[in-house]
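Protocol step 4 of 6: structure prediction from sequence.
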Amino acid sequence: MQITKAEVTPVELSLRQPIRAAYHPEIERVTAVFVRIETRQGESAWGCAIAHPDLTGEEPEDVIEACQSCADMAADLHPTNLEYSLAELAPLTEDTPSALCAFDLAFHDLLGLAAGMPLHRLLGGYRHRVQTSVTIGIAPLDETVEMALARAAQGFRMLKIKGGLDAEEDVRRVQAVHRALSDLVLRLDADGGYTVRQAVDVARALEGSLEMLEQPTPVDDLEALRQVTRQSPVPILAAQSVTGPASALEVASRKAADGISVKVAACGGLNCARQVDAIARAGKLATMIGCLPEPALLIAAGLSLALSAPNVRYCDLDGHLDLIGDPTVPGFTLEEGWLTATDVPGLGCTVEL
C-alpha cells in the first residue's frame, strides 16, 4: 500500500453555546484540521486535529503548517508500518501534537481499511457499545437544572457538570440537579479550580450523589491532587494533569488519583492514548476517555479506544454535539446516551468537504 496524496483542510467550527470553564476564557469556536490520505490502491482515509490556544496550547496556523509538512512527507511512508511512520513524523510535530494526532488517526483509519475491520475490533474488540456522559457547562443554578433536564429528555443518563469557579455554588448546583434527576449518574469536573480543602469539602458534601470528581486541583500540583485522593470519599480523576505517558506514569506511581482521563485529540493520537491507558491499567487506575469540542471523526477515534480497552470505566464523548457545520458523517450511533459502533472498516466515518 503506497500513499499517493495527502491533503490538509482547515475548517473553522462555531459552537452553539460558548464553553465556560475555570481555567480559560469562554470559547465560541475552534479550528478543526482535516487530513485526507489517498493510496495507489484507491483507499481514502481521514484524520483530524483540533487547534485552539486555550484547549491544546497551540495556535491554529502552527498546527496547519505542521500538518502540511507531514503531508509533504507522507508519500515516503508506509502507513501500515504505523510505529515507524509516526516516529518519522514526530520531529515535525514536536511542538504541535495535534498535528501528529491528525496523521495518527489517518494511519489507523487506513490500517482498518486495509484489514477490512472496524478499528475498535482491530485494537482489541472488548465491547461494541459504551455509555457516555454529556457536559453541562458552568451556569447559574436554575439554568444548570434546565440544561440537565433538557439533556435527560434527550435520553442521556449520565451528566458531567462543569465547575471550579465557586466550590460552594458547585455543591448547590449538583445537589439541585440530583434532586431534579435522582436516577441519573452525576460527575463534577472542577477543571483545576479548587484548593485541597475545597476539593475535600465538595467531595464529602456530595458523597452518595456524585460518581466521581475530575481534576479538582491545579493541573501542575500533583501533591495537592494526591492529598485530595487520599481524603475523598468519591473517586478522583486526573485530567489536564496528564498530557502523555510520562505524566500518566507519574500520576500512577504517586497514586495521585483513582483514575486518569485521556483525550485522543490532546495527547497526540490513538498511539499515545493507548500508552496512557496501558499505564493506568498497570497502575490499577481506571481510565476515562474524554474529549474536546471536536468533530465526530475524533469522537469515533475515542470511541474505538473505549470499545477496545477493558480498563476504560468512564466515557465522556460528547464533544461533537454542539459543533455547527461538522463535515463528518459518523458511522457510530448515539441513542439514549449509548454510543454504538458499526462494522464499517477503519474509523467508520466519511467527511464531506
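Step 5 (inspection) to follow. Residues 25 and 70 are 31 Å apart (CA to CA).
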